[in-house]
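Thread: Newbie trying to understand structure tokens

Hi all, I'm a second-year student working on a class project, and my supervisor (Dr. K.) asked me to get a predicted structure for one chain before our next meeting. I've only ever worked with sequences, so writing a 3D structure as a token string is new to me. If someone could post the tokens and maybe explain what I'm looking at, I'd be very grateful. Here's the chain:
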Amino acid sequence: MYHLIVFASGGGTTLQAIINAIQKKELDCEISLVISNSPDAYALERAKNAGIETYVIQNKKADAVDLELETFLNKYQIDLIVLAGYLKKIGPKLVDKYTIINTHPSLIPKFCGKGMYGMKVHEAVVNAGEKISGATVHYVNNNYDEGNILAQTKIDVLPTDTADDVAEKVKAAEKIQLINVIRNLSKK
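---
Reply by user tm_fold:
Sure, no problem. This is what the structure looks like when written as tokens:
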């Protein structure tokens, strides 16, 4: 069994896609734990509904969070950490110890880096008049959105598309792509 830890900051729709894929036997994985930096994240509710253990990060300072998580995660068997809409930088202790992947809502290297997440990305895509956007899954390193790319999926941006339209297209592509990446990594 391939053991996942999922980090999420918000609604958890990407987490739900992973849960659904596991339940449908599309992934031979188990989510051991869902971690959030926000006690109000609906992702935690999704995890609880699926019988998955949850943890809310207690510390606020980056160095303290890194140490807290390194200590807490020692009791888990972890094959892969998946950042699924997690909006905080992962510290060096975790980056050095675990294989971590992130899903980003653009075609890296465009529209990425510190401060580029969620609707900010899609608004930037529309404002720039881009004809193509998409989603990227990449390994996490010590810099925002600079780890080696595992997969990218392109979507067409129509001249009439709003940032919300782009977001919906990207979210759909992102979830399929992430499930495929996790499947491939779990078979190695």
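A couple of things are worth pointing out once you decode it. The chain has a mean pLDDT of 97. The radius of gyration is 16 Å. Feel free to ask follow-ups in this thread.
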